[in-house]
Amino acid sequence: MPGAARGVSKAFDRVIAGADDAMWIATTVAEGRRAGCLVGFGTQASIEPRRFLACLSTANHTYTVACSAQHLAVHLLSSESLALAQLFGAETGSEIDKFEHCEWREGPHSLPILAGAAGWFTGEILRRDDFGDHVGFLLAPTSAQPPDPGHAPLRFHEVGALTPGHRP
Question: How many domains is the chain partitioned into structurally?
């Protein structure tokens, strides 16, 4: 990478880090397989109709399962959810069943709903778009459980040092 492009990349990375986005966990189920992962790239994509974009790494086990799924559950993490973020961000479903290591229940669309999340929603997958090393899953909300008032979300800076569980 030429020096100028490298400089832009570093500056861009610092701008994005300055946003310090809230962290999410996406869970899904398809063909009898459960999966879930930490989502660093997730955002509301439309006000009306309501839409959410959850981007999953193509190197991720959850991505493989989500390709066959019709729905995702997206969990908002609180500042007290670091252990859950570590489980779903630093472990891979190719090697362990993450759901054996946390509290969860079966929710709408048979999706795993994590007990340690501040809030969550489920969404029908409307489309999948290739964004490079991540694929964006555009979701239409189908059910939701809001967080308690005053919760503090877990932020990117609190998980930025995690080593991803998947192997690129």
Answer: 1
